[in-house]
Amino acid sequence: MTVLRSILLFLAAAVAEIGGAWLVWQGVREHRGWVWIGAGIIALGLYGFVATRQPDAEFGRILAAYGGVFVAGSLLWGMALDGYRPDRWDVTGALICLAGVAVIMYAPRGH
After folding, report:
1. Please, which residues have CB within 8 angstroms of residue 92's CB and are 6 or more apart in sequence?
2. Less Cβ around it within 10 Å: N or C end of the chain?
3. Tens-binned pLDDT, residue by residue, of the chain (111 aa)
4. In Å, what is the CA distance from 12 to each residue of 30, 90, 109?
5. What is the pTM of this model?
């Protein structure tokens, strides 16, 4: 259950951070205005709180692992909302990042 909870928290964090960054991008780069920017800032703040809910207490480990989730999630977000089509190297890189997440977060440790 702890691994499932951790994965769900990583997914929630990805939605908050990537979604927040996308909203700011839309507000600034696509000239959608301050409401979009403000919503993005709120979502980015929410990301920080979601990350603290991870079962592991090591800040460095959580943020390092989340980096891999962010890479893969950003490609998926771009596909879903901006019509981005990753090439085989994007997909390969994202899979490598997710493998890194698994090693960092879920490898057995001798504590």
Report:
1. none
2. C
3. 699 999 999 999 999 999 999 999 999 999 999 999 999 999 999 999 999 999 988 999 999 999 999 999 999 999 999 999 999 999 999 999 999 999 999 999 876
4. 25, 22, 25
5. 0.89
